[in-house]
Design goal:
single chain; alpha/beta; Helicase, Ruva Protein, domain 3; 2 domains; Glucokinase_regulatory_CS
Protein backbone atom coordinates (compact mmCIF):
# COMPACT_ATOMS: atom_id res chain seq x y z
CA UNK A 1 0.00 0.00 0.00
CA UNK A 2 1.61 3.27 -1.17
CA UNK A 3 1.43 6.60 0.64
CA UNK A 4 -0.56 5.26 3.57
CA UNK A 5 -0.80 7.30 6.78
CA UNK A 6 -1.40 6.15 10.33
CA UNK A 7 -3.41 8.76 12.17
CA UNK A 8 -2.78 9.14 15.89
CA UNK A 9 -6.04 10.37 17.39
CA UNK A 10 -8.57 9.23 20.02
CA UNK A 11 -11.06 8.60 17.22
CA UNK A 12 -8.77 5.83 15.95
CA UNK A 13 -8.74 4.01 19.30
CA UNK A 14 -10.84 0.88 19.66
CA UNK A 15 -13.87 1.45 21.89
CA UNK A 16 -13.70 -1.21 24.64
CA UNK A 17 -17.45 -1.10 25.21
CA UNK A 18 -18.47 -1.98 21.66
CA UNK A 19 -16.16 -4.87 20.80
CA UNK A 20 -19.15 -7.22 20.62
CA UNK A 21 -21.43 -4.88 18.67
CA UNK A 22 -21.52 -7.18 15.64
CA UNK A 23 -23.28 -9.89 17.65
CA UNK A 24 -25.62 -7.54 19.53
CA UNK A 25 -29.35 -7.30 18.90
CA UNK A 26 -30.72 -4.40 16.90
CA UNK A 27 -31.91 -2.66 20.07
CA UNK A 28 -28.53 -3.20 21.74
CA UNK A 29 -26.73 -1.67 18.74
CA UNK A 30 -28.93 1.39 18.96
CA UNK A 31 -28.36 1.61 22.70
CA UNK A 32 -24.58 1.47 22.15
CA UNK A 33 -24.94 4.36 19.70
CA UNK A 34 -27.21 6.40 21.93
CA UNK A 35 -24.98 5.92 24.96
CA UNK A 36 -21.96 7.09 23.00
CA UNK A 37 -23.81 10.07 21.55
CA UNK A 38 -24.83 11.22 25.04
CA UNK A 39 -21.19 12.18 25.72
CA UNK A 40 -20.87 14.55 22.77
CA UNK A 41 -22.56 17.61 24.27
CA UNK A 42 -20.15 17.51 27.20
CA UNK A 43 -17.16 17.49 24.86
CA UNK A 44 -18.59 20.48 23.00
CA UNK A 45 -19.22 22.34 26.28
CA UNK A 46 -15.47 22.26 26.94
CA UNK A 47 -14.73 24.32 23.82
CA UNK A 48 -17.35 27.05 24.33
CA UNK A 49 -14.93 29.72 25.65
CA UNK A 50 -12.73 29.42 22.56
CA UNK A 51 -15.77 29.20 20.31
CA UNK A 52 -17.08 32.44 21.84
CA UNK A 53 -13.82 34.17 20.95
CA UNK A 54 -14.13 32.88 17.40
CA UNK A 55 -17.72 34.14 17.18
CA UNK A 56 -16.77 37.61 18.41
CA UNK A 57 -13.87 37.90 15.99
CA UNK A 58 -16.03 36.68 13.12
CA UNK A 59 -18.72 39.27 13.90
CA UNK A 60 -16.07 42.00 13.88
CA UNK A 61 -14.68 40.72 10.59
CA UNK A 62 -18.11 40.63 8.95
CA UNK A 63 -18.86 44.17 10.11
CA UNK A 64 -15.57 45.25 8.55
CA UNK A 65 -16.56 43.71 5.22
CA UNK A 66 -15.14 40.21 5.65
CA UNK A 67 -16.63 36.77 5.14
CA UNK A 68 -16.49 33.36 6.82
CA UNK A 69 -15.03 30.43 4.89
CA UNK A 70 -15.40 26.77 5.88
CA UNK A 71 -12.98 24.17 4.51
CA UNK A 72 -13.40 20.43 4.97
CA UNK A 73 -13.34 17.02 3.32
CA UNK A 74 -15.74 14.10 3.58
CA UNK A 75 -18.22 14.41 6.45
CA UNK A 76 -16.60 17.63 7.64
CA UNK A 77 -17.04 19.27 4.25
CA UNK A 78 -20.62 18.09 3.90
CA UNK A 79 -21.52 19.47 7.32
CA UNK A 80 -19.93 22.78 6.34
CA UNK A 81 -22.02 22.95 3.16
CA UNK A 82 -25.17 22.14 5.15
CA UNK A 83 -24.52 24.87 7.70
CA UNK A 84 -23.75 27.57 5.14
CA UNK A 85 -26.77 26.66 3.01
CA UNK A 86 -29.20 27.13 5.91
CA UNK A 87 -28.19 30.71 6.67
CA UNK A 88 -30.03 32.33 3.76
CA UNK A 89 -33.52 30.95 4.49
CA UNK A 90 -33.09 31.14 8.27
CA UNK A 91 -31.44 34.54 8.66
CA UNK A 92 -31.56 36.12 5.19
CA UNK A 93 -27.77 36.17 5.28
CA UNK A 94 -26.28 37.82 2.18
CA UNK A 95 -25.16 35.42 -0.52
CA UNK A 96 -21.49 34.60 -0.02
CA UNK A 97 -21.29 35.77 3.58
CA UNK A 98 -20.57 32.19 4.65
CA UNK A 99 -18.78 30.12 1.99
CA UNK A 100 -18.35 26.35 2.32
CA UNK A 101 -15.49 24.70 0.41
CA UNK A 102 -15.69 20.92 0.15
CA UNK A 103 -12.71 18.93 -1.12
CA UNK A 104 -13.64 17.57 -4.54
CA UNK A 105 -16.42 20.10 -5.06
CA UNK A 106 -20.04 19.25 -5.81
CA UNK A 107 -19.39 15.68 -7.10
CA UNK A 108 -17.80 14.73 -3.76
CA UNK A 109 -20.90 15.79 -1.82
CA UNK A 110 -22.82 12.72 -2.99
CA UNK A 111 -20.04 10.23 -3.60
CA UNK A 112 -16.52 9.96 -2.20
CA UNK A 113 -13.83 11.05 -4.66
CA UNK A 114 -10.43 9.43 -4.24
CA UNK A 115 -7.49 11.41 -2.89
CA UNK A 116 -9.11 14.86 -2.96
CA UNK A 117 -8.64 15.34 0.77
CA UNK A 118 -4.90 14.69 0.37
CA UNK A 119 -4.39 17.59 -2.06
CA UNK A 120 -2.67 20.44 -0.22
CA UNK A 121 -2.36 22.52 -3.39
CA UNK A 122 -6.08 22.27 -4.14
CA UNK A 123 -6.88 23.52 -0.66
CA UNK A 124 -4.68 26.54 -1.28
CA UNK A 125 -6.26 27.12 -4.70
CA UNK A 126 -9.76 26.90 -3.25
CA UNK A 127 -8.71 29.56 -0.73
CA UNK A 128 -7.52 31.93 -3.46
CA UNK A 129 -10.58 34.14 -2.96
CA UNK A 130 -9.91 34.63 0.75
CA UNK A 131 -8.90 38.13 1.83
CA UNK A 132 -7.21 39.36 4.99
CA UNK A 133 -10.61 40.57 6.26
CA UNK A 134 -12.01 37.03 6.22
CA UNK A 135 -12.16 34.23 8.78
CA UNK A 136 -11.13 30.77 7.57
CA UNK A 137 -12.31 27.75 9.54
CA UNK A 138 -10.83 24.33 8.85
CA UNK A 139 -12.88 21.29 9.83
CA UNK A 140 -11.07 17.98 10.24
CA UNK A 141 -11.76 15.30 12.83
CA UNK A 142 -8.22 13.92 12.52
CA UNK A 143 -6.62 17.35 12.66
CA UNK A 144 -4.33 16.58 9.73
CA UNK A 145 -6.32 16.72 6.46
CA UNK A 146 -3.94 18.09 3.77
CA UNK A 147 -6.72 19.87 1.87
CA UNK A 148 -7.54 21.85 5.02
CA UNK A 149 -3.84 22.46 5.61
CA UNK A 150 -3.52 24.08 2.20
CA UNK A 151 -6.45 26.39 2.85
CA UNK A 152 -5.31 27.41 6.33
CA UNK A 153 -1.75 27.91 5.11
CA UNK A 154 -2.86 30.24 2.35
CA UNK A 155 -5.14 32.14 4.73
CA UNK A 156 -2.36 32.71 7.25
CA UNK A 157 -0.02 33.83 4.50
CA UNK A 158 -2.29 36.74 3.60
CA UNK A 159 -3.13 37.62 7.20
CA UNK A 160 -6.67 36.22 7.53
CA UNK A 161 -7.83 34.94 10.92
CA UNK A 162 -7.92 31.13 11.07
CA UNK A 163 -9.56 28.44 13.20
CA UNK A 164 -9.36 24.67 13.39
CA UNK A 165 -12.28 22.51 14.53
CA UNK A 166 -11.10 19.01 15.34
CA UNK A 167 -11.62 15.97 17.56
CA UNK A 168 -7.89 15.40 18.02
CA UNK A 169 -6.10 17.08 20.96
CA UNK A 170 -2.83 16.35 19.16
CA UNK A 171 -3.92 17.86 15.85
CA UNK A 172 -1.04 18.34 13.41
CA UNK A 173 -2.64 21.48 12.03
CA UNK A 174 -2.91 23.23 15.40
CA UNK A 175 -0.03 25.53 14.45
CA UNK A 176 -2.10 26.88 11.53
CA UNK A 177 -4.94 28.08 13.77
CA UNK A 178 -5.45 31.32 15.67
CA UNK A 179 -8.45 29.63 17.31
CA UNK A 180 -8.11 25.95 18.21
CA UNK A 181 -11.46 24.28 18.88
CA UNK A 182 -10.85 20.71 20.07
CA UNK A 183 -13.94 18.67 20.96
CA UNK A 184 -12.33 15.45 22.19
CA UNK A 185 -15.14 12.96 21.59
CA UNK A 186 -12.89 9.93 22.09
CA UNK A 187 -13.18 6.50 20.52
CA UNK A 188 -16.03 5.89 18.09
CA UNK A 189 -18.57 3.07 18.35
CA UNK A 190 -17.06 1.85 15.08
CA UNK A 191 -13.31 2.44 15.22
CA UNK A 192 -12.30 5.42 13.11
CA UNK A 193 -15.81 6.23 11.85
CA UNK A 194 -15.66 9.96 12.50
CA UNK A 195 -19.03 10.59 10.87
CA UNK A 196 -20.40 9.44 14.24
CA UNK A 197 -19.47 11.25 17.47
CA UNK A 198 -16.83 13.50 15.92
CA UNK A 199 -19.23 14.47 13.15
CA UNK A 200 -22.03 15.11 15.63
CA UNK A 201 -19.72 17.39 17.61
CA UNK A 202 -18.83 19.30 14.45
CA UNK A 203 -22.52 19.74 13.65
CA UNK A 204 -23.21 21.08 17.15
CA UNK A 205 -20.24 23.44 16.92
CA UNK A 206 -21.28 24.75 13.51
CA UNK A 207 -24.88 25.18 14.69
CA UNK A 208 -23.72 27.15 17.71
CA UNK A 209 -21.14 29.19 15.82
CA UNK A 210 -23.26 30.37 12.91
CA UNK A 211 -26.35 30.95 15.06
CA UNK A 212 -24.39 33.01 17.58
CA UNK A 213 -22.85 35.06 14.76
CA UNK A 214 -26.29 35.78 13.32
CA UNK A 215 -27.70 36.74 16.73
CA UNK A 216 -24.78 39.09 17.37
CA UNK A 217 -25.38 40.65 13.95
CA UNK A 218 -28.96 41.49 14.99
CA UNK A 219 -30.73 38.94 12.83
CA UNK A 220 -33.10 37.87 15.60
CA UNK A 221 -35.53 39.65 17.89
CA UNK A 222 -35.50 37.94 21.28
CA UNK A 223 -35.49 34.25 20.29
CA UNK A 224 -37.54 34.83 17.14
CA UNK A 225 -36.22 34.49 13.59
CA UNK A 226 -37.24 37.91 12.32
CA UNK A 227 -35.01 37.65 9.23
CA UNK A 228 -36.46 34.34 8.06
CA UNK A 229 -37.13 34.22 4.30
CA UNK A 230 -40.65 32.95 3.62
CA UNK A 231 -39.93 30.63 0.69
CA UNK A 232 -42.80 28.20 1.25
CA UNK A 233 -46.28 27.98 2.79
CA UNK A 234 -44.98 26.77 6.15
CA UNK A 235 -42.56 29.67 6.45
CA UNK A 236 -45.16 32.22 5.30
CA UNK A 237 -47.38 31.03 8.12
CA UNK A 238 -44.45 31.21 10.54
CA UNK A 239 -43.75 34.82 9.57
CA UNK A 240 -47.29 35.82 10.55
CA UNK A 241 -47.05 33.91 13.83
CA UNK A 242 -43.69 35.49 14.65
CA UNK A 243 -45.11 38.95 14.05
CA UNK A 244 -48.12 38.23 16.26
CA UNK A 245 -45.98 36.67 18.99
CA UNK A 246 -43.50 39.54 19.06
CA UNK A 247 -45.95 42.43 18.82
CA UNK A 248 -49.21 41.17 20.30
CA UNK A 249 -51.02 42.16 17.10
CA UNK A 250 -54.05 40.29 15.81
CA UNK A 251 -53.65 38.07 12.77
CA UNK A 252 -55.47 40.63 10.62
CA UNK A 253 -53.27 43.49 11.85
CA UNK A 254 -50.13 41.41 11.39
CA UNK A 255 -51.04 40.49 7.82
CA UNK A 256 -51.97 44.08 6.95
CA UNK A 257 -48.68 45.42 8.31
CA UNK A 258 -46.74 42.71 6.48
CA UNK A 259 -48.46 43.67 3.26
CA UNK A 260 -47.58 47.33 3.84
CA UNK A 261 -43.96 46.28 4.40
CA UNK A 262 -43.85 44.27 1.19
CA UNK A 263 -43.74 41.01 3.11
CA UNK A 264 -40.60 42.02 5.03
CA UNK A 265 -40.87 40.92 8.64
CA UNK A 266 -38.39 43.28 10.28
CA UNK A 267 -39.92 46.58 9.11
CA UNK A 268 -43.39 45.25 9.90
CA UNK A 269 -42.32 44.28 13.42
CA UNK A 270 -40.58 47.57 14.10
CA UNK A 271 -43.60 49.45 12.77
CA UNK A 272 -45.87 47.67 15.24
CA UNK A 273 -43.48 47.80 18.20
CA UNK A 274 -42.44 51.41 17.65
CA UNK A 275 -45.81 52.77 16.63
CA UNK A 276 -44.41 54.27 13.44
CA UNK A 277 -45.10 53.90 9.75
CA UNK A 278 -43.31 51.32 7.64
CA UNK A 279 -41.14 53.94 5.92
CA UNK A 280 -39.93 55.25 9.28
CA UNK A 281 -39.25 51.69 10.41
CA UNK A 282 -37.19 50.99 7.29
CA UNK A 283 -35.17 54.16 7.84
CA UNK A 284 -34.53 53.32 11.50
CA UNK A 285 -33.36 49.81 10.60
CA UNK A 286 -31.04 51.19 7.94
CA UNK A 287 -29.53 53.58 10.48
CA UNK A 288 -28.90 50.79 13.00
CA UNK A 289 -27.32 47.98 10.97
CA UNK A 290 -30.70 46.32 10.49
CA UNK A 291 -31.01 45.60 14.23
CA UNK A 292 -34.58 45.68 15.52
CA UNK A 293 -33.41 46.12 19.13
CA UNK A 294 -31.17 49.10 18.36
CA UNK A 295 -33.72 50.73 16.05
CA UNK A 296 -36.51 50.28 18.59
CA UNK A 297 -34.38 51.81 21.34
CA UNK A 298 -33.81 54.87 19.17
CA UNK A 299 -37.49 55.18 18.32
CA UNK A 300 -38.69 54.81 21.90
CA UNK A 301 -36.02 57.16 23.24
CA UNK A 302 -36.95 59.81 20.69
CA UNK A 303 -40.67 59.50 21.37
CA UNK A 304 -40.19 59.77 25.15
CA UNK A 305 -38.12 62.97 25.03
CA UNK A 306 -40.01 66.11 26.16
CA UNK A 307 -40.84 68.57 23.43
CA UNK A 308 -39.17 71.96 23.90
CA UNK A 309 -41.49 75.01 23.83
CA UNK A 310 -38.62 77.38 23.17
CA UNK A 311 -39.49 79.40 26.34
CA UNK A 312 -36.89 80.37 28.92
CA UNK A 313 -37.46 81.13 32.57
Amino acid sequence: MANDVRVSAPTEDRHPGTVGIDTASTLEILMFMNDADSTVAGAVAEVLPELARLVDHSVSSIRAGGRVHYFGAGTSGRLAVLDAAELLPTFNAPDGLFVAHHAGGAPALLRAVENVEDDVEQGARDASGVTRLDVVIGLTASGRTPYVQGALGRARKIGARTALVTANPGAELAAYADHLVVADTGAEVLTGSTRLKAGTAQKLILNSFSTAVMIRLGRTWSNLMVDVVATNAKLRGRVVRILQEASGASEAEARATLDAAGGQLKPALLSLLGGVGVDAAVAALRAHDDSVAAALLQLTTTSSQPVSTGETS
